[in-house]
Amino acid sequence: MERVTLEIPEELAGTLHIDQARVKELVMLGFSQLKLQEALTLYKRGIVSFGRAAEIAGVSERELVRHARAYAVRPRWDEEMLCEELSA
User: Fold this and answer.
1) CB of 69 within 8 A of CB of 61?
2) How many angstroms separate the CA atoms of 30 and 25, rounded?
3) In whole angstroms, how large is the CA radius of gyration of the chain?
4) In 3D, which of 75, 55, 56 has the Cα closest to residue 65?
5) Residues 54, 64: contact at Cβ < 8 Å?
6) pLDDT tens digit string along 65-77?
7) What angle do CA 38, 43, 47 make, to 5 degrees?
8) Most distant pair of Cα atoms in the chain: their distance
9) Is pTM beyond 0.90 here?
C-alpha cells in the first residue's frame, strides 16, 4: 500500500473534527467520484460503452444511470440500438 501525507489547514481540520479514519474515508470518496467522472467522460466521448463505463466506475449500470442524469450525460442511442432494446 502506498503512503500519502496530506496537509489539512488547521481551520478546516478544526471545523470538521477530522481524524485519520475520516481522512481515509474522504480520500476514498474522492477516488470513487473521480472514477465515476472519468467513466462518464469516456462514455460521453464515445470511447467506451455504457456497460464498460459502469465497470470502470465500479458501479452497476442502474447506479451509473442515476449519476449520468446528475451530470447531465445523455445516452447515445442510434436506430439499431433502439430496435434491439425494443425487441428484447
Assistant:
1) no
2) 9
3) 18
4) 75
5) yes
6) 899 989 888 877 6
7) 100
8) 59
9) no
